[in-house]
């Protein structure tokens, strides 16, 4: 008996230690806009939505941990106290009203407790605030095309550059957006279904041909943030990264002016050609 109690204690301690190490490791490696070696949890947040996704993830993690430990303790008690050797004459008890009411009500309360922040997060993701800037991302086999419909209507392709860091995430033309501004992202597909995803901003939305999907993010930190196409879309699915550079307002304005000139002659630029025809 004594040995078993020690074992139980040690098991619970072991579980708690592993859980704390995982949480600590997650905290230690968080904070970059790209995957890092030995990363064991979500990428660091750089948007209000991702802040809440991480909060919700941690909330569920500890809730699940508590429930799992509780069930483990019950199982251990049953196995130790009520095995045939320790308890040769079993009790004939069949019902206990208090326990039956409790094991119905408590799980319901737990589910309601999960549902409230879950729905709050869902509404935050889907209810797009008034946008400061709109960008349009079109998934193609196998690269992305970006347009800035309210900043000179230029358009450009963004392709993987094989030897550019970070590996498999570096591109020739990065998306540039201003910091602390609500960016509405319109997403569509030109050929097959792709998906536009940036972990640090907490967004992932399908790029479906013939359909215009919308999502949004507000980058709260300057720097580079990376994502990848997240829908199996063909042989180079793994080689169409998304690279977003978040800059301050002045840098963004300067970039827009430079981009208007740089991409003016882009043959794929339908907006520009419409604009020049009108002129
Ligand atoms: Cu794709």
Short description:
The protein is of the alpha+beta class. It is built from five helices and ten strands, in the order αααββββββββββαα. A hairpin with a 2-residue loop joins strand 1 (133-140) and strand 2.
Explain the overall architecture.
By secondary structure, the protein is α+β, with helices and mostly antiparallel strands. It folds into two domains: 2-91; 133-278, Immunoglobulin-like (Sandwich), CATH 2.60.40.420. The protein has five helices and ten strands, in the order H-H-H-E-E-E-E-E-E-E-E-E-E-H-H. The protein has helices at 2-29, 48-81, 97-126, 249-262, 270-278; strands at residues 133-140, 143-147, 155-158, 175-178, 182-189, 194-198, 203-207, 213-218, 223-228, 241-247. The strands form three sheets. A five-stranded mixed β-sheet has the order 3-2-1-5-8. The longest helix has 34 residues, at 48-81. The termini are far apart. The model is unreliable at 25-30 and 271-279 (pLDDT under 50). Copper (II) ion binds next to loops. The site of copper (II) ion has 7 residues, from loops.
Topology, please?
Layout: H1 2-29, H2 48-81, H3 97-126, E1 133-140, E2 143-147, E3 155-158, E4 175-178, E5 182-189, E6 194-198, E7 203-207, E8 213-218, E9 223-228, E10 241-247, H4 249-262, H5 270-278
The structure holds copper (II) ion.
Copper (II) ion (CU) binds at residues 139, 194, 229, 231, 233, 237, 240.
């Amino acid at each position: 008996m004594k040995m078993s109690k020690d074992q139980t204690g040690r098991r619970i301690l072991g579980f708690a230690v592993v859980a704390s190490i995982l949480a600590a490791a997650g905290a230690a490696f968080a904070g970059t806009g790209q995957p890092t070696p030995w990363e064991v949890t979500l990428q660091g947040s750089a948007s209000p939505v991702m802040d809440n996704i991480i909060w919700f993830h941690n909330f569920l993690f500890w809730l699940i941990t508590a429930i799992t430990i509780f069930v483990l303790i019950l199982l251990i008690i049953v196995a130790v106290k009520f095995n045939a050797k320790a308890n040769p004459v079993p009790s004939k008890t069949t019902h206990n009203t208090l326990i039956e009411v409790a094991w119905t009500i408590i799980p319901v309360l737990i589910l309601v407790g999960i549902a409230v922040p879950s729905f709050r997060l869902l509404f935050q993701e889907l209810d797009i605030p008034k946008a400061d800037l709109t960008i349009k991302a079109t998934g193609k086999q196998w690269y992305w095309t970006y347009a800035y419909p309210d900043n000179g209507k230029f358009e450009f392709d963004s392709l993987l550059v094989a030897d550019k860091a970070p590996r498999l995430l570096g591109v020739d033309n990065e998306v540039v957006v201003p910091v602390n501004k609500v960016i509405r992202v319109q997403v569509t597909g030109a050929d097959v279904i792709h998906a536009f995803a940036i972990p640090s901003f907490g967004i992932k939305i399908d790029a479906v041909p013939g359909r215009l999907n919308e999502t949004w993010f507000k980058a709260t930190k300057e720097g580079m943030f990376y994502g990848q196409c997240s829908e199996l879309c063909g042989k180079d699915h793994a080689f169409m990264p998304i690279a977003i550079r978040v800059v301050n307002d002045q840098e963004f304005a300067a970039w827009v002016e430079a981009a208007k000139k740089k991409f003016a002659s882009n043959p794929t630029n339908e907006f520009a050609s419409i604009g020049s025809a009108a002129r």
